[in-house]
Amino acid sequence: NVAYLFGDKWIWQTLYKIVALVMLFIGGIATYTFVWDLGDVGIGLMTIFNIGILYLMGGQALKALSGYEKEKKARKKGQKK
């Protein structure tokens, strides 16, 4: 996913790997409640980010759905004849 978002720029991939290693290290030495708290924060941030993106893309998604439904109806009409 990092390569898709940022291309083949090694700095972003290396930064992602470092962050992942730090999180693995913290997860290995920290108490389980702290690890669960970090997980909860991560899931919360992903949820907020995804809701924002869904809101921004909502109009495009509805246009795509409308076009798909029109095309599907046109195909059904063509098959009935």
**pLDDT < 50 stretches:** none
Distance between the termini: 46 Å
Order of helices and strands: HHH
- The whole-angstrom Rg is 22 Å
Structural class: mainly alpha
Helix content: over 70%
Name the beta content range.
Answer: under 5%
The chain-level mean pLDDT equals 86
Q: Main beta sheet: strand number and arrangement?
A: none
Number of domains: 2
- Assembly state of the chains shown: single chain
Number of strands: 0
Number of helices: 3
Instruction: Give the overall form.
Output: elongated
Structure description:
This protein has 81 residues and is mainly alpha-helical. The chain has two domains: 30 residues, no CATH class; 49 residues. It is 91% helix and 0% strand. The chain is built from three helices and no strands. The longest helix is centred in the C-terminal third of the chain and has 49 residues.
List its salient traits:
0% strand; 2 domains; mainly alpha; elongated; 81 residues; 91% helix; 3 helices
SSE topology:
Blueprint: H1 2-6, H2 10-29, H3 32-80
Brief description of this entry?
The chain has 81 residues and is an all-alpha fold.
